[in-house]
Amino acid sequence: MRIINEIKKSFLVALWFMFLTFPIMVIKVNPLEKLIVWRWHNLAMVGIASFFISFLLRCAGRWRKSAARRPPALTMKGLSNNPRAYYSALAVIALFSLVFPFIFSAYETSIMTTALMYVILGLGLNIVVGLAGLLDLGYVAFYAVGAYSYALLNYHFGLGFWVSLPIGAMLAAAFGILLGFPVLRLRGDYLAIVTLGFGEIIRLILENWNDFSFGPSGIANIPRPSLFGINLSLAASTIYVYFIALLLVIFTIFVVNRLQDSRIGRAWIALREDEIACQAMGIDKTRIKLAAFAMGATWAGMVGVLFAAKTTFINPASFTFMESAIILSIVVLGGMGSIIGVVIAALLFVLLPEYLRAFADYRMLLFGAVMVLMMIVRPQGIIGKVRRTYVRGQVTGDKRQKNGIITNLL
Amino acid sequence: MTAILKVTGLSMNFGGLRALDDVDLRVEPREIVALIGPNGAGKTTFFNCLTGIYPPVSGTIFMRASSGKQSRLNGLPPNKITAKGMARTFQNIRLFPEMTVLENVMIGCHCRTSAGILGAVFRPRAVRAEEQRIVDSSYKILTRLGLTDVVNDLARNLPYGAQRRLEIARALATEPALLLLDEPAAGMNPRETAELNQLIGKIRDIYEVAILLIEHDMKLVMSLSDRIYVMEYGRRIAVGTPVEVKKNPAVIKAYLGE
Amino acid sequence: MNYFLDLFFSGLTRGSIYALIALGYTMVYGIIGLINFAHGEIYMIGAFTALIIASLLTVLGMNGMAILVISGLAAMVYAAAYGYTIEKIAYKPLRNSPRLAPLISAIGMSIFLQNYVMLAQTSDFLPFPDLIPNFAFMEPYSDFIGSSDLVILLTTAVAMLLLTIMIKYTRMGRAMRATAQDMQMAMLVGIDVNRVISFTFIIGSVLAAIGGLLIASHVGQINFYIGFIAGIKAFTAAVLGGIGSIPGAVLGGFILGLTESFATGYVSSDYEDVFAFGLLVLILIFRPSGILGRSENQKV
Ligand SMILES: Nc1ncnc2c1ncn2[C@@H]1O[C@H](COP(=O)(O)OP(=O)(O)OP(=O)(O)O)[C@@H](O)[C@H]1O
Ligand SMILES: [Mg+2]
After folding, report:
1. Any idea what the Cα angle at residue C53 is, between residues C51 and C59, rounded to 5°?
2. Which of B1, B37, B186, B251 is deepest in the core (most CB within 10 A)?
3. pLDDT tens across C82-126, in order?
4. Nearest CA to B49 among C300, A45, C280?
């Protein structure tokens, strides 16, 4: 009886969605030639899909209600409590990433490099959004700052990649602070909009200020990174850039991991949890927010430099709001504050559309859906963060300690 | 002068509402002072003005640090005020729900420690030692407040009474000279309230703090306080020892009506 | 002088559109405290629906006025349906979540809808039929104001008037005001808060669809991305006037429209969007409560 009821309801939902999507999914117009194409199969597709999705969700909701409590978050605790499994897994991953560029083609190496770059971007934004709880929708601006720093420094002064890398990172951090200052007093949702506005302003300036940025045509012939002054062949350079990205990923994970369980990291989380209580605990809101913006921006700046060096060509079109949205959805899917989650999400989001070609067109559609779904179903992300536990007289984390450094890493 | 906190002529408006009207108050070192009054009298607003969350429209707030130096608190941001030695709890609990109990208390140590971003990344010996100190002192506070069993639980999973105690623990971690408690017994059962009564006295003795306490539970107030201030409609209507206040006709009127 | 008037009227026209969209932001914000990021997409979907239906009717051989009315109605009905559904799917389940959650959900919804329309239709600009007739009596003034400007201004004025009357004098309007003040309390006195919220989304969406139809017809082309920029600008207008305030949204819309029109006319048209974003950033920094908004004091 209940089932029949659910089927009835799902049927109504399906009807509603068929009505809703009718003009846009079914009718395709060509106003110029006054042509109308009817795509009735889409209507059937929507109907069937929404019926099943609605039905499944209903059953899931039932099941969840009857299970009284939410299932515990999937965490890495099990794995980390088993050091042998953990270290073997780590070794396999390390070995795989080391040999990757030698067993896969240059094309695939290049894609993996992109994925690694998104890992860093995700981890960087994770500091701002996941830890400090500041919804930054203009993150791509710092990425642009890094990329243009290298391109312009190289164009005007002939600076190389390795010199530009720290400069780009620092410039981005400076921009982070610059952007941070005015938005300090703003509430969460206003902050989101203002950062979005800033991101767009920077892109529009890059697009229109021809004398400075060469406008929409961008900057070409940016040199690839050189190895001790030697210019590498294209193939060798691809591999080289891959290893640079890998190194940066490791560096980022190391730093973010140490940050999040430090005095500053705790202050960020406190800020996210309750701004007023955070201040009442003696935390300087201004400084901690600026630190978060600057730290987040630093990684974006570094990846920006790497991006310019990898593609050898940049223009403002690479730095639209959609890029910020992709990075944000990586953070959301990965779980705010979870390093391993963000790494997995970034790899998933970049590699999946690349290898499932059919997927590629639906990429952004999926990202949007993922953001909505994650918020509703699993706000903590695919992998929830386990809070670190401490033992009296034991901070630095002895490896034998049950909940020491290992849990901490994940 | 010896008072640790001296407030004169404090006033606060919300739109047309005069939430505080020319309130004077002082707290001597190691004293427990209660602030009572009917709902909406402006007690919490008074705390908010003291701790820099609302800017008062007029009045002065002076606090004496343990060094003996007087400083004016008006206009300082909340964190600076905490750093000067005033800590508080909130009437509607404001813990950091997704952090563990211990971490909540560790946050309280923030203003007494100094490690920055570089320190966090490189973890030199000094930073490790500082972290160790934070953990140890937080443990110690939690032990004293009877929260040892739950140190690694998330704050949001604690029962109500324990959450209230955790708020006090967190405030103590800031090493205050003056502790402001906003209705610490609210929502507690009689047994918990009795325990809290003892606990507050103990805290005063161990940490040598002065305590300013808002509370509706008269038994608690009468047994703990050295002095009591009574407020109504934003004004101070009486002050004195518990015995004096109990007999004060204005107070009786405020609580019982005409 | 004619140039000035031209800029002035095109500023007012723009402003009307911003105002129509801004009302949706402001009403939703007033009631559930959420920036409905997907609101710009509703406007875009309204415009697309109008375009599709109008093209269909043209092929079927209908004439001008009937096309305008039918496609306009279709746009409103569909915008309302989308607004209603979005609220049910993306916001309602998150009503008690931390503040960031519905905001992220809203951004996701916005991205989803953009790509949905792009994939189902096209990513190119589509020409939009000129649905608004040219009035002969406007001919002498055509240097600075066209028929469509007039229609847009009048429609906006009528829509505002109806909205104000609705909110001031109807039962539903009263319920909306009560819910905006205190949702808990409204619930306690027996107001069906869910219905009020749905209704608010529907009204906001209908206004956005009117805006979409008018501006598409005025500008003559649309694509899937128009909602994003228009949405941010309308949001700017809402904040400028004081978010949560209905007259504020209208005022903000006009101020923004005029600013943009004059800035692009007299300064530079390259930076058209920068003016709007810059204005947004400045207001939020210096006067987050806007011109007519009340500054809010978080209760502690
Ligand atoms: N942020 C605010 N905005 C507007 N009015 C406020 C605000 N905070 C407090 N008030 C008003 O100020 C008055 C005093 O409130 P307050 O919270 O200080 O009372 P209280 O004495 O703490 O009461 P209770 O015993 O119920 O906690 C009340 O009328 C309250 O409505
Ligand atoms: Mg109170």
Report:
1. 100
2. B37
3. 999 999 999 988 888 877 888 889 999 999 999 999 999 888 888
4. C300
C293 pLDDT above the threshold of 90: no
Q: What percent of chain B has pLDDT above 70? A: 98
End-to-end CA distance of chain C: 55
C-alpha span between C196 and C180 (Å, rounded): 10
pLDDT digit string (tens) for B182-237? 999 988 889 989 999 999 999 999 999 999 999 999 889 999 999 999 999 999 99
Structure tokens at C274: 């920068």
- Beta strand ranges found along C25-74 (DSSP E): none
Chain B: closest CA distance from residue A146 (Å): 21
pLDDT tens digits, one per residue of B123-168: 888 888 888 889 999 999 999 998 988 888 899 999 988 999 999 9
Q: Taking CB atoms and an 8 Å cutoff, what residues of chain A touch B128?
A: 395-396
Q: Domain map of chain B by residue range?
A: 1-85+176-258, 95-175
Separation between Cα atoms, residue C183 and residue C206, nearest integer Å? 24
Q: Are the beta carbons of A374 and B106 closer than 8 angstroms?
A: no
Q: How far is B161 from chain A (nearest CA, A)?
A: 18
Q: What is the pLDDT of residue B57?
A: 92
CATH number of B1-85+176-258: 3.40.50.300
d(CA C265, CA C272): 10
Residue nearest to atom 16 of ligand 1 (CA): B42
Partners of B182 in the β-ladder: B214
Do residues C232 and A196 touch, judged by C-beta distance below 8 A?
yes
Token pair of C266 as six digits: 């007299």
Type of residue numbered A2:
R
Give distance in angstroms: CA of A358 to centre of ligand 1.
59
Q: How many Cα atoms within 13 Å fall on the side-chain side of residue C135?
A: 11
Cβ-based burial of C153 (10 A; exposed 0-12, middle 13-18, buried ≥19): middle
Query: Could you tell me the CA-to-CA distances from A32 to C117, C126, C129 in Å, in that order?
Result: 19, 8, 10
- d(CA A108, CA A116) in angstroms, rounded, equals 12
d(CA C79, CA C97): 26
Residue B117 clears pLDDT 80, i.e. is over it: yes
The pairing of strands B58-64 and B178-182 is unpaired
Pocket of ligand 1 (CB under 6 A): B 14, 17, 19, 37, 39-45, 91; C 297, 299
d(CA C279, CA C273): 10
Mutate which of B11, B20, B35, B44 for ligand 1? The one with the most ligand atoms within 8 Å of its CB, which is B44
Q: What are the φ and ψ backbone dihedral angles of A385, each rounded to 5 degrees? A: -85, 130
Residue B152 forms contact with A (CB below 8 Å): yes
Helix (H) or strand (E) holding B165: helix B160-172
Domains annotated on chain C, with CATH: 2-286 (1.10.3470)
Indicate the range of A66-80, C235-249, C277-291 predicted with least confidence.
A66-80
Contact between residue A258 and residue B120 where contact means Cβ atoms under 8 Å apart:
yes
Element (H, E) at C275: helix C272-286
Q: Tell me the CA–centroid distance for residue B75 and ligand 2, in Å.
A: 22
| Cβ contact B79–A283 (<8 Å) | yes
- Please tell me which residue of chain B has the smallest CA distance to C294: B15
Write down the mean pLDDT value for chain C. Answer: 86
**ipTM for this model:** 0.92
Q: Inspect the interface and report whether the beta carbons of A264 and B116 lie closer than 8 Å.
A: yes
Q: Is C168 on the interface with A (CB under 8 A)?
A: no
Once rounded to an integer, what is the mean pLDDT over residues C133-145? 69
pLDDT, residue A399, reads 35
Q: Cα angle at C103 between C101 and C107, to 5 degrees?
A: 120
Stretches where chain A sits below pLDDT 70 are 1, 63-82, 229, 231-232, 384-386, 393-410
